Amino acid sequence: MTVGVALNASDAPNQVDATVQLAQEAAGAGLRSAWFGQTFGADSPQLAAIVGREVPGLQVGTSAIPVFGRQPLLVSSQAQTAQAATHGRYHLGLALGTKLLTEGFGLPFERPIARLREFLTALRQLTETGTADFHGELLTATTPLSARVAGAESGVPLLVAAMGPQALRVSGELADGILPYLAGPRALAEHIVPAVTAAAEAAGRPAPRIVALVPGVVTDDVDAVRAKATENLAFYEQIPSYARVIELSGGRRAGDLAVIGDEKTVEAEVRRYRDAGATEVVFSATEIAGEADRRRTWRLLGELAR
To answer: How does strand 209-218 pair with strand 280-284?
Structure first.
């Protein structure tokens, strides 16, 4: 099972330089992948491409680019360029996004599942063939010129931050896997993995990758770090899709899904995610308790990745 980390250096004097340094440290600790979020700041495919060039062997990915405010032709160009730059080590994560993020583009948050289906359909054509002739209700993608990026012939794995029934069905049919966040082992085993796997099987596609993103850290100061995680993650409790999956996971607050404790505790939780169907586990927010605990966390995760 692959074990990776989400990297966040947005507070550094130079985010790109700091991200490369973190990625080098992660690879040195034995971690297999590095993932980059996307809001209104740094462009995550560019960060992934730079890190992939600077840190050979490390898998890199975005988690995740909202489909609202983007166009499949442009995202295909970004993803294929990152794939060529990393010689096949780039993974593209997409998301429905939220009303808050969508309104930044002046767009209404309407018909997200239909938009996701059309986006994936057009994007799959573009990344696999370098051409598209797609005319949907919400999106159009046509290629009077080739959209192929030389060096990206291996294609680009397409993953979706899907957790709800409709998004899981579309992802199973059209994507290569999913990127659930704040979905605990119970929600994965009982709801998420069965739904996306059934959709993939019905569509004649291979078993989907389940890349579980998990906020967590190895620390001795469990109560204080739990309180901080609960505060930092409270935003997600206002989003219906996250509130639902938190409840399905047996949590009351988003912070309840953070994995916090000593090495034995965290290792046991990682194995629970694996047993629930996760093919890959990616820890986020590992910096929440400071640098010493972040490094301690990465050492453990690197050992688990071996």
So the answer is: parallel
What SS3 class is residue 175?
A: coil
Q: How many whole angstroms separate alpha carbon 124 and alpha carbon 72?
A: 9
Give the residue among 303, 305, 300, 294 at the shortest CA–CA distance from 22.
294
For residues 147-170, give the mean pLDDT: 95
Q: Which of 175, 164, 167 is nearest to 244 (CA)?
A: 164
pTM for the whole thing?
A: 0.96
* Cβ 209 vs Cβ 188: under 8 Å: no
Of the candidates 45, 46, 73, 91, the one whose C-alpha atom is nearest the C-alpha of residue 146 is 73
- Residues 283-302 have a mean pLDDT of 98
Torsion sign across C-alpha atoms 270, 276, 277, 283: negative
Tell me the pairing of strands 65-66 and 209-218.
unpaired
Q: Is the C-alpha dihedral spanning 86, 5, 201, 272 positive or negative?
A: positive
Decide if pLDDT at 93 tops 70: yes
- Among 267, 242, 265, CA closest to 254: 242
pLDDT at 101 exceeding the cut of 80: no
Pairing of β 65-66 and β 33-36: unpaired
* Angle at alpha carbon of residue 129, lines to 137 and 212, rounded to 5°: 75
Burial of 236 (0-12, 13-18, 19+ CB in 10 A): buried
